[in-house]
Every structure is written in structure tokens, then in C-alpha cells.
Amino acid sequence: MLGNTPMMKQYEEIKKDYQDCLLFYRLGDFYEMFGPDAEMGSRLLGITLTARDGGLGKVPMCGVPFHSADNYIAKVIRAGQKVAICEQIEDPKSVKGIVKRKVIRVISPGTILEGNYLQERNSNYLLAIVRSEQGYGLAVVDASTGEFMATEVPDWTTLHNEFWRYDPVECLVAANDEQALEDVKRIAGENRVTITPHHNHAFALDYAEKKILEHFHINSLISLGCADKPLLTIAAGAILDYLNLMQKSRPANIMSLKVYSLKETMDLDYATRRNLELVRSLHSADRKDSVLGIIDYTRTAVGSRLLKNWLEKPLLNQADIQRRLDSTEELVQNTTLRLSLKEHLDPVYDLERIVSRITYGTANAKDLLALKNSLAQLPALQKSIQQGKTAYLQQLNADFDVLSDVYTLLEEAVHPEAPFSMREGNLIRTGYNSEVDELRDILVNGKQWIVDLEVRERERTGIRTLKVSYNKVFGYYIDVSRSKSNEVPEEYVRKQTLANSERFITPELKELENRVLGADEKVKELEYQLFVQLRNTVGEQVARILKTAHIIAQLDCLFSLGQAAVYHNFCKPVIAQDGQYILKECRHPVVEEKLKDGWFIPNDVHFHPETERFLIITGPNMSGKSTYCRSVAVASVLMQIGSFVPAREATMPVVDRVF
Known about the structure:
Elements: H1 6-15, E1 21-27, E2 30-34, H2 35-45, E3 50-53, E4 58-65, H3 69-78, E5 82-88, E6 101-107, E7 126-132, E8 135-142, E9 147-153, H4 156-166, E10 170-174, H5 178-188, E11 194-198, H6 205-216, H7 230-247, E12 258-259, H8 270-275, H9 291-295, H10 301-312, H11 318-333, H12 335-345, H13 351-360, H14 365-375, H15 378-385, H16 391-399, H17 404-413, H18 434-461, E13 467-471, E14 475-481, E15 493-497, E16 501-505, H19 507-539, H20 542-568, E17 574-575, E18 581-586, H21 589-594, E19 603-607, H22 625-639, E20 649-652
Parallel strand pairs: 1-5, 7-10, 9-12, 10-11, 17-20
Antiparallel strand pairs: 1-2, 2-4, 3-4, 5-6, 7-8, 8-9, 13-14, 14-16, 15-16, 18-19, 18-20
Helix pairs in contact: 6-7, 10-20, 11-20, 12-15, 12-20, 13-14, 13-20, 14-17, 18-19
């Protein structure tokens, strides 16, 4: 027990339900931590550890300012810890004694929403894994974008490959499943992923089914494609339960569940993805010296994340591959269209993550302004893609929603210079709400109104020495000399008698005082309420905004593939129907990029299903054998995401696996 004061009792009562979190306890303008939390917080955050009297002695204490808490929370999350945000839910001015508090949200590595915690071009995946004798169920979600997927895998090796395809920051397992916990630890390694044992009941099939049905407002799992897949159903239900628990609300930005099979995309195991340096370099562990770094010319965060997803999941369906290749070709050949896309994609913010903050009720005015400025680009963006001739671009154009009603609402409602803080006012644009305009007018013109009242009262009463004055005790009052006090009108109410003057108030002055003195507080509260209503109204259009965001992401990916083909002199591959594999003057794009000032010698490759089934590559160490092999593998991966390939000419079949 830390103490017996009312505040310490309240703190400990709240803390007992959040033993695995650092509890950020709101106290005035600070989030405070006490006891063991304070000791850990002091170490993690590098802040001074102090103490306060808890009634039974000194209690360790440290705190961070409320207005700059995000940076401190980010440090805690990066250390793999969770933070429980405990807020005051009553106005301290209207309460005697201890103010009621409750935890409004728990932040863990896999449930982050705020952009300053996240890498905008990378997804932030939370996984849930469930084990049985038949294999494993795996569900994955990015809470910050609403992306939600699930699958089943037959064995530990496949689970390992799929686990690292997503490179999660946090992984859920059932608290009582020691084997699953051990399996995840073997995959994740030490201190690389936060492993969270979650409530056992969330991993029961009946509970998981109910959770999924309730979330998507459906009566059957058949429509989601998981009615006969109990393992992935349990994993998906457990994730939804965890998000509800952490965010204290339904994750409304999760609009669908994609149930997928590993047979739908090219099989790329962990070692292959790593050694081909598809999304990160072996040496620097970032995307700069990787295949992704070569082809990523995306202009938006949503596009960059989708391109990474494409590269990690090359297609097997020939028609889908051809559809992308044809659109990439059009963007290579139509420079005007390509540059127009670039121009109108550049100003688009991260719509997926903005929408997530809107649905969870954490979006501020800057978020809504970013949404508005993004939506402002949509009419011009649609006009650009209307030039497209390929089936893919035409379909994107047909599905494109410019969201003009949402843009108009935001343009009319949100002040263009609104602050980050929601309680400082200046959130609502002039003209949107008459009461806000009136209160602002009072703030701006209140002093002049007092002067005007003084002039009117002097003229009305004929008392030339009459003055309207103010002090903190009495507020506004009319001061009249004692010699003229018998000349005041009947509606004057005596407030105070002094040696040389009398002080009066009138109904008009009292009303004016209430309006002037209360206007600042009233307008800030009213603007906050209007902003919350506005945010909720925009939140009702989540499905439409996310649909448009996904179209923008696809356009951005196609632009990027077209730009990469032009910049790196890639060629359009022909999909071979007879199994032949022909590359003329094939290059390895990453090695070629590193040798900008040197020479990369291209190579030819020729396979034939009947005459040349394999090649034997010989040569001394460091002679380029592995580069030759990898250049072929990379070319296949690139073709099957819809990209041109680094060669002078290419005829290639669709392959189901690269080793």
C-alpha cells in the first residue's frame, strides 16, 4: 500500500486493474506516476524522481507535462511497455474533494494511433496467434489504418515465415497456452516483439465468433469466408477483443476482414525475402538499399505501405498481373498523366491514420484540416485518371468518390489556423455557428460596448460625471458622485456606498457583464462541443473515406511503378504461356544502383521447359554468381507485382515460388 490519503487510495484502486502498464495519472497539468511506476518511468524517460507524502510516508513520484506527454509516451512504447491514460472525468472547479478519474485508453506497441509514434511509410502490425494440433491460426491488424487479415497455416515453419512477413510490433497469445507462448518466443527472439498474454476467454471459439459478428453487424461468418476456419476465427476475435479493451471503444475503422490463403500469392519464405533484400537491406536494415527502395516513388504514406505489401505478396493470377502491367505501361508512355498524378498525390496526407483517429475520437483540428486539404485534391485527381485507357485505371475512376460533401463541411466548419489543443478555442470557422460568432464578437468588442454604455447612460441621465468601472470583487458597476446619486433612474440598483460616490448596477449592465466575463470560457467550451459533433459527423463517412484512400494508394503504387520503370530503364515483361523464361541484358537493380559510377555487366537468361530446365553456374568467389541468380529472382517478383523489370527484353512465366 502506497498511502492512505484519498488520492493515493484512488490511484491504487485504478492501478490494480492495470498492473502491466505504466499508469499516467492526470493531476492538474501533469501526468504523474507513483511508487514502482515512478521508479520505472524515471529510468525510461530520464526524468527526475521525487516524492510526496502519501499518508504513510514518502511515495516515489515523477511526472510529465500534459501538453507534451506524447513524446514521453512514445519513449515508453518504444521500450516495449504499455501506458494507461487516466484522466479526470469531472471539472475540478465543481467538485469538493477528490476528482473522479478513470482510464480512458491503454496504449501498447500494437495499438498506437498517433502519427508521432509511428513510421508513416511502415505498417504497425499487431498479431494474434492460436495453436492446435491441426496447425495455427493467425490474425493481423494495423489499428492505425484498419487493415485486418487472417489465415491458417499448417506448421511452425510456415508460421515463422508468415510472422516475419508482417514484422509485428506486438503479438497476442492465450495466457494459458504455454506452448503457443514458447512458439512465439522462438520466432520473435528476445526483445524484438512485445509478446502479450491475453485473457483466455477471448480465445474461446464461441466468444470469438460472437465478437466478430457483433463488430461487423452480421448474422453469419459465411460472408467473411471463415465459417469453416475455427483457428483464424479465434485469432481474429481475440484481436477485436484486445482492441476493444485497450481503446475502450469499438474499432470502427476496421471495416472488413480479409481471409486469405497462402496459395493466392507467390511463396517467399523468410530467408528468401531477407536474402533478396526485398524490403530492407541486409546491411542497414532499412529500405534504402533494397528492391523496395529502388521502386518506391510513391507520394503518399498510404501508397508506400501498399507498395510494400504488393512486393511482399506477388500475385499468381495472370489476369491480375496483366492488369497491373498494362496500367504501369500506360503511365510509362503517358508522361502527362504520370506527372499529373504526382502533382495531385503530393499534398495528400495519411488518410487511413487520420480516419482511425477520427473513429477513436482522438483526432484534433489539425487532423481534420489535413483531411480537408487532402480531399481538396480529389476532383483534380479524378480528372487525371479519367484520361486512363486501361481497364484497371477505368475501374478506379468508376469507383472514385471525391467526397465533395465532406470537403464542404470541413471547409465551412474548421478554422484554417486551428491549434493542436482542443480546449484553446479558435477551432470553428467564423460563419459556421451564430452563437460562436456572437461570443467572439463579445470578446473583441466587449470593452467598446462598456464605453458605449457609459456614453448612453450619461446622455440619458444627464449626469456628466457618471462612469462605468470594474473590479474583481464587484465586477462591472456604475459610479456616480454622492451629490448626483439622487438623480439616478429607478432601475439603478445600489451596490455599494463610498465616502464620495455611490456604486450601482442595472439589468443591462449585469447582462453585459455576464456576457463579457463568461464569453471566453463559453466560446471555448462551445467550440469544443461543436468540434466533437463535427468529428462524429465526419466519422459517419468512414467507409467512403477509406474506400477513396485505398483507390489513392493503388494509383500511387501504379505511379511509382511507372516512375521507376522510366527512371531505371526497365522494360515491360511478356507473360509466357509456354513456360519459357527469357531475359536479355538482365540487371540486378540494387547492385546496379550501388554501382552508379561504375559498370554493371548485364546477363542473359534462357530457360525452356523441354530443352533447358536448369543452369549450372560456376566461378570463383565474388565473381557474381549470387548476383546473377538473385537478379532472376528479383525480376520474377517484380513482374508479379505488376512492375516492369530491369532488362532490355523479358518473356517470363508466372512462378509460384522463389527460393
